[in-house]
Amino acid sequence: MAPGHPAPAIFFLSDYGLVDEFVGVVHAVIQRLVPGVPVIDLTHQVPSFGVVAAARVLERSVPHLGAGVVLAVVDPGVGSERRGVAVEVGIEVGPHWLVGPDNGLLLPAADLLGGPRRAVVLEGVSTFDGRDVFAPAAAHLVGGGSPEALGGPADVATLVALPDGRAEVSVTDGVVTTSVSWVDGYGNVQLAGPVHIWEEAGVVLGATVMVELGGSHGGHRARARRVSAFSSLAPDELGVVLDANGHHALALDRASAASALGGAVSGTEVRVRVVG
Amino acid sequence: MAPGHPAPAIFFLSDYGLVDEFVGVVHAVIQRLVPGVPVIDLTHQVPSFGVVAAARVLERSVPHLGAGVVLAVVDPGVGSERRGVAVEVGIEVGPHWLVGPDNGLLLPAADLLGGPRRAVVLEGVSTFDGRDVFAPAAAHLVGGGSPEALGGPADVATLVALPDGRAEVSVTDGVVTTSVSWVDGYGNVQLAGPVHIWEEAGVVLGATVMVELGGSHGGHRARARRVSAFSSLAPDELGVVLDANGHHALALDRASAASALGGAVSGTEVRVRVVG
Amino acid sequence: MAPGHPAPAIFFLSDYGLVDEFVGVVHAVIQRLVPGVPVIDLTHQVPSFGVVAAARVLERSVPHLGAGVVLAVVDPGVGSERRGVAVEVGIEVGPHWLVGPDNGLLLPAADLLGGPRRAVVLEGVSTFDGRDVFAPAAAHLVGGGSPEALGGPADVATLVALPDGRAEVSVTDGVVTTSVSWVDGYGNVQLAGPVHIWEEAGVVLGATVMVELGGSHGGHRARARRVSAFSSLAPDELGVVLDANGHHALALDRASAASALGGAVSGTEVRVRVVG
Question: For residues A273 and A250, what is the distance between their CA atoms, to the nearest angstrom?
């Protein structure tokens, strides 16, 4: 490794779960091909076939990753006509390649990493593409192999985008209309939308807001206070905090806000307005 | 590492689960003894004391592993008279040693790796043999230590085989009588038996079969179509596919065939015959 | 690495769970800062905010760890006034630093490692301290960086101890009064108290004892036999065994003693007396 040249790693995400041996076998294949290259597991417990949830995991993760290759396999279309791809991105710092199915999983993260610069269509097909196609491709690229050896070029404009695109987020008459983008393991409820949306609606430190859930949560309502840290909240007091990914989230101190809100899940509609 | 000499790894399987610190402590012990040797976790979530299920995991995994040592600890007899063993196998490519309890866990994988060539009985006994006996033995062997240092020789003919041996699979009057060998995390239902069995029974691409479950699933029946990929199936259509381990499996596209079949589990009897 | 100088590792414990990407992101941050340093996961599935349970995991683990840094993040007070600390311990063999929140989590393990010798208060605050403060500090220390660069000194006498301290264990009139210190994934029920307590009460190999659970388990009683190994027990026979951490535990052979005892959990009161 040349001085100043960071040691590359493979960053591995899937919906394989941790009960079967799938994750271990992929690690073993990579170890065989490029011994000593670290393989870092982001998570393997996204919901089965949960392409959108997995794309969100990648978006949250990639700003913190070093040099190397993202290997992401959530692949409802395995064995079908859908393409397997390796996508090169334009960023200086961070992973330079993302490898996985061409089903929208990779694009949001690629956009955060400077955008897709070129892509190749991976040759080969298998009922276990992670092991047989994607892992070998990631190993090839992390070892400095030429992308041309993996397959023919793909026009980056033809890469498949997520079907549902971005959540609609708006402010009308002081009401933020948004939706849940993620519920983490602690029950924190992350809301879609950039920080400026919340400023426009007056959701500033110390403000009290009314939160109303839509959809199947039929009008579940709760007051919440915009605070700077979980620990500023009283027991059972709902808060709005800026989370570690720079998004606003509904939270309780040492308890699950999602449960307190009647079981909010990704996609649940949320309306928020300042009441004090 | 000499050129052309692959870097060895330890491939670790257990029923320790991922809640307690057992897996981490074993990793730490190995890191202390042979720093830098990769330890690849196959899975630690086989059912507690599930020797047969774990033996199947090893069988499915070992064809994909590189050089090194398999460390497998599913050990209902820990602390008893059962022996701990290291088994050397005759294969050129892949792991050369398997370490674990002599309870049948290692033998099916050893057979796939060229068969047991010699074995040693590991000295030492502990209520945490994984940490105190098996991991140190695996570290010793992966580092190139002599097996004689670990204990006396065992006649490979005396190694304990799995009590139940192989599933009975047969074809009579065009009916394949087999059983479920594995249900994976997606709910795919792998069936026991070599590929030629299915050809004999006429289960060729495009054929329609009737599947009947036995035992406590009391005659649960369903039609299925032999297809080449999950994605060829209509929604809710049951399929028979060739899985990533070269076995036939009952599957749905993006859904659990095991659930659709009333909760099929490993060992459930299955009869299959062509009906169209 | 100089000969005889063991390769250091980071030993990582948290309550992050394995569903979200938190653990993977922390691994990635460490890989970026100190490429090639092994990060060994002890467990990430202690109960959310379970500082006491996590402190027990560390206590059980540290005697088996090699050189390096313990990174432990169970942090109900994240973002509050609670300090983040790095604690140096006096032991020759094993980890030299423990990094995490100053909430009692680190002290019991530090005591086992020769006791705290000095401490520094980590600068920086974040809603994801594991990623932004603790992991960088652990990486800095494992790479040989000076602790002074991380923050100002803390008097080790001011480090926060666990609120509840040690379980009360006593022997009166031949009755051991103790409590459950841990239920592992197999359902083994570890009891608090040093080995000599059990000798004082006459709980020797072969003795039969009466076990009575208190608290919400309202007088659940069972006979048990002190044996040397699980395998000495008859089916469904409750045993008292010396476990792999040197503590006495209630156990069944290949079954869950905790379930058999009506759901014993950490903290459940237990009284034991010899009856034969």
Answer: 13
Which of residues 173 through 202 in chain B touch A, CB cutoff 8 A?
A: 184-186
Residue pairs between chains A and B whose CB atoms are closer than 8 Å: 94
Nearest to B57 among A21, A35, A81 (CB): A21
CA B16 to mean position of chain CA atoms? 16
User: For residues A75 and A100, is the Cβ–Cβ distance under 8 A?
Assistant: yes
pLDDT of residue A189: 97
Regions of chain A with pLDDT less than 70: 1-6, 164-167, 215-218
**What percent of chain C has a predicted confidence (pLDDT) above 90?**
81
Say yes or no for a CB contact (<8 Å) between A31 and B18: no
Q: How far is CA C276 from the centre of its chain?
A: 34
Nearest to B64 among A20, A28, A82 (CB): A28
According to DSSP, the residues that pair with B88 across neighbouring strands are B97, B118
Reduce the DSSP state of residue B237 to 3 states and report it: coil
* Average pLDDT, rounded, for chain A: 92
Q: What is the ipTM of this complex?
A: 0.94
For tokens 């919340």, the residue is: A198
What totals of helices (H) and strands (E) does chain C contain, helices first?
Answer: 7, 15
Distance of residue C253 Cα from the nearest chain B Cα, in angstroms: 8
Residue whose token pair is 């430190």: A205
Residue C113 CA: distances (Å) to CA of B32, C49, C143, C255: 16, 24, 20, 34
SS3 C138: helix
Tokens of residue B117, six digits: 């060539």
Strand ranges for chain C from DSSP E = 9-14, 39-43, 68-73, 84-89, 95-101, 116-121, 153-154, 170-172, 175-183, 189-191, 208-213, 221-226, 239-242, 248-251, 269-274
Write down the pLDDT at residue A46: 96
Q: Is C7 on the interface with A (CB under 8 A)?
A: no
3-state DSSP call for residue B220? Answer: coil
Cα dihedral B262/B263/B266/B268 (nearest 10): -30
CB contact under 8 A, A43 and C24: yes
Contact (CB<8Å) C48/A185: yes
Question: For residues C174 and C275, what is the distance between their CA atoms, to the nearest angstrom?
Answer: 10
Buried b (16+ CB within 10 A) or exposed e, A162-173: eeeeebebebee
- Helix axis angle, A22-33 to A135-142, nearest 10°: 30
Chain A touched by C24 (CB under 8 Å): yes
Residue B165 CA to residue C127 CA, distance in Å, equals 54
> Would you give the end-to-end CA distance of chain B in angstroms?
58
Q: pLDDT: is C229 or C145 the higher one?
A: C145
Residue B118 · residue B156 · CB < 8 Å? yes
The pTM of the full predicted model, rounded to 2 decimals, is 0.94
For residue C102, pLDDT beyond 60: yes
The separation between the first and the last C-alpha atoms of chain A, rounded to the nearest angstrom, is 58
